[in-house]
Structure formats: C-alpha cells, structure tokens
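Notes for week 9. Today we move from apo structures to complexes. The key idea is that a small molecule is not decoration. When we ask for a structure prediction with fe (ii) ion present, the ligand SMILES becomes part of the input, just like the chain. The input block below holds both the sequence and the ligand string. Read it once before you look at the output, and try to guess where the molecule might sit.
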Amino acid sequence: HGLALDGGPTAGWSPWSVHDDGVLLWVRLDRAGGERPTDLPVVPPRPGPGSAVDAVYTGVGTCEPQDVVANRLDPWHGAWLHPYSFVDLRVLGTPASGAAQDEDVLAVEVSFKVSGRLVVPVRAEFSAPEPRTVVMRITDGEGAGSVVETHATPLTAAGAPRPRTAVVEAVLAVSDRRGFAVARALAPLLRPAMRATAARLWRDDLRYAERRRQLRASGRFPG
Ligand SMILES: [Fe+2]
C-alpha cells in the first residue's frame, strides 16, 4: 500500500497487546477501553486441545452488552423463541431457587431438534465467569463436555445514544460417538453449518436484546 517501512517492528505506530487463546484472538485496549485491563482475558475451561470441533459466530446488535447477557441468562426463552431448535425445556435450578449444585449456575434440561421429529435431550448449565461472558456447558446427554462461550463486547462508548454490541460466540463441540475423530478432521467442512446454526438463533436473540434495550430506553421497563 505504499507504506514506507524501515525494517523495525513498528514503523511509527503503537501496537496493541494481543492474546491468542487457540480459538479466539483478543486485543487489549488498555487506556482506550476506558476500563482497568486484566493481564489476560477470562477464558473459561474448554475441552482439551484437539478434542473439539470449534466454530465462531460474530454478530452485531443495537443494544448494550447487558442485553446480550440477559438473553443468554434467560433459559426460559429457548423453547418459545426458537421452537425450530428446542423443545421440552425445563429449568432444573437457578441461583435463586438454591436447587442448583453451584449457587451461580442455571441448570436446564432441553431437547435439541436435529431434524423432523428427531430430538436429542441434553442437560446444560449456564454460568457467567465475568460480566460480559456467558458459558453454556453440556453436562449430560449427547455432546456432554461441549461448551458454548458467548462474549458481549461494546463497540460504542458508555452512554452512546445508539449503543452497538458485538456478539462473539465460540462453539466447542465434543462427542463420545465413534466417528467423531473423523468429524474433527472434517472441521473445515463442519464450521459453516455450525456457524449457520448459531446465526439462525442469534437472528432471534439479537431482536430480543435490541427490544430489551428499546424498552429500557423508553422507561417502560425497569432495570
Ligand atoms: Fe436464544
């Protein structure tokens, strides 16, 4: 592009600190972020290296990170907002009910629609390791050990009249099924389908988050 370089590592620009966690690449904004940076991003425990098929979906909504987090921590919405994907959702325990083993975990039982009448029942737990990350872990059933990590990142400054938030969601799928090793080798072919599944869900979920933010801005919604 015609940039004059002098052979040094930085030709007049200041680099940002980055961290590659193997699935996601993080950039630390330091002072520009307006918050106290952590040494490393908060990455929840994941399936062992090389054991999962991973795919990352990215979307942007006109909302704040809290609206994305609220959607992810509302387990009740799954079956009625995404009837094409989930049926028979039952919330087993919430932090408030005290029924969950860990007091900061939401536990659900849900069946995932694969195709037609074929459904796969799973048990899953939701938790938030930091304020803008929600993790869903499948604890029982098909794909136990799989993780869906949702990160909500603000793209606009606090208090912006039209806030925008990026949703970065990493799916790390594992399976005990025979043939999964073959599936792992086919990861480049599977990723578009995994991403398409996430994109379909987030089409609805971003509308949920945007509506929540609109209601809050209108003053008709507490919180
Ligand atoms: Fe959803």
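The first strand starts at residue 17 and ends at 20.
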